[in-house]
Amino acid sequence: MPWPLVRPDAKARMSNRPDFAEIEAMSRDPDRLIAYMDARNVEKLVMINYVSPSVVGFTEEANEFSAQMARPYPERLIPFGGIDPRREADVAARMDYLLGDLGLRGIKIHPPHQLLHVNGYLHSDTLRGLATVYEKCIEYRVPVMVHTGTSIFPRARNKYGNPLDIDDVLIDFPELNVIIAHGGRPLWMDEAFFLLRRFPNAYLDISGVPPKHLLRYFPWIERVADQTMFGSDWPGPGVKDIGRNIEDFYALPLSEDTKRKILRETAEKLFDRSLD
Ligand SMILES: [Zn+2]
Fold first, then answer.
1. Domain residue extents for the chain
2. How far apart are the CA of 123 and the centre of ligand 1, in A?
3. Which of 72, 122, 139, 206 has the fewest CB atoms lying closer than 10 Å?
4. Distance, CA 57 to ligand 1 centroid (Å)?
């Protein structure tokens, strides 16, 4: 995360932890991040970055940050970035830069932090460019990750967090792979499950859900294991350590098959498809 861009009140929500100095250091130094991963048997890590100038403080610089962090370790660090079509004169050219020149491998859209509906291209002139964002992701074969569920950051607006908005996107862009981040937790898990059942190109990530409570939130998870990926949300508020989350996940009463899919195979399938 590009900490220098984060607004002070948002940073205050994330910096009150004993390991914050080390997290900040890792965010400047990919070698340190790789050492953290090695110590926890983490082979690959997706770095979620996005654009949210008015809520969190992330400007478009977050994209160069993400790409630069990943550059020394292309086999291990997978950089995501973002875009706000309302701030772009030429969305298509900007997407060519992000996915072509910078080599970002996914786009994160955070509706409660970007103050938009992901289906806004249907209803708003200023958000028509979102359709171009989705078309370019199909062209470059990279997924779109959409934050779903609530956010308690200052200024976050939670009406944008309902995953059902993604229904339009999946209908209008049937070739697009969409990751439903956090499965709508804690309010809209049924909506997320509905989308996963309806659309084979909808994916779930379990980031931001404490693994110990996973089956309470997603009792149906084994039925969609082929579409589900592990994620931690580290170093987000309340997420102490990726390794701890993996251990807690392993301890769940799920089949070995499901665990292997969620920890490895679904992501391999998704990212291989986006590379070939
Ligand atoms: Zn999120």
1. 3-275
2. 24
3. 72
4. 15
pLDDT at 272: 80
Ligand 1 centroid to residue 137 C-alpha, Å: 19
Cα-to-centroid distance, 84 and ligand 1 (Å): 16
Q: Give the span between the Cα atoms of 203 and 200, in whole angstroms.
A: 8
The alpha carbons of the chain give a radius of gyration, in whole angstroms, of 17
Measured CA distances, 206 to 87, 96, 140, 231, 234 (Å): 30, 29, 25, 5, 12
Is residue 6 predicted with pLDDT exceeding 60? yes
User: What is the pLDDT at residue 174?
Assistant: 98
User: Are the beta carbons of 56 and 153 closer than 8 angstroms?
Assistant: yes
How many whole angstroms from 34 Cα to the centroid of ligand 1? 22
The answer to whether residues 113 and 161 touch, using CB atoms and an 8 Å cutoff, is no
Separation of alpha carbons 134 and 124, rounded Å = 16
Distance 76 CA to ligand 1 centre (A): 21
Interval 77-125: pLDDT, tens: 999 999 999 999 999 999 999 999 999 999 999 999 999 999 999 999 9
Q: Which CATH number describes the domain made up of 3-275?
A: 3.20.20.140
Ligand 1 midpoint to CA 170 (Å): 19
Measure the CA–CA gap between 239 and 227, rounded to whole angstroms: 23
Instruction: Give the Å distance between the CA of 166 and the centre of ligand 1.
Output: 15
Task: Tokens 């934050």: give the residue.
Answer: 147
Does the pLDDT value for residue 273 go beyond 60?
Answer: no
50 Cα: distance to centroid of ligand 1 (angstroms): 10
pTM, full prediction: 0.97
How many Å lie between the centroid of ligand 1 and the Cα of residue 206?
10
Ligand 1 centre to CA of 258 (Å) is 23
